[in-house]
Amino acid sequence: ISLHLHDNDGQDGLHWPLGRGEIDFRWLMGALIDSDRRLILELYSKEDVRLSFEYLGKMMEEVEAVDGGS
After folding, report:
1. What pTM was estimated for this model as a whole?
2. Distances (CA, A) of 32 to 13, 29, 39
3. CA dist., res. 37 & res. 46, Å (int)
4. For 22-64, what is each residue's pLDDT tens digit?
5. Residue 38's beta-bridge partner residues?
6. Is the CA virtual torsion 54, 59, 62, 64 positive or negative?
7. Under a CB-based contact definition with an 8 Å cutoff, are residues 46 and 11 in contact?
8. Cα-based angle 56, 34, 14 (whole degrees, multiple of 5)
9. In this model, does residue 70 exceed pLDDT 70?
């Protein structure tokens, strides 16, 4: 199973970088932290990819801290 990720305003598929819109990625990362799923970013620019990687890194650190680093 793979997930195609991008953020949006809750109405349109705008393909914003993760963390810019309305999607609760903290919940999603918590649900997926121990899974074997593929995450595919659907973005428009290299800058959006960079911003999304930075955001995902912060989310993973937060989720692992709450989860006890398991």
Report:
1. 0.73
2. 22, 5, 10
3. 23
4. 988 888 877 777 778 788 889 999 999 999 999 988 887 877 7
5. 2
6. negative
7. no
8. 35
9. no
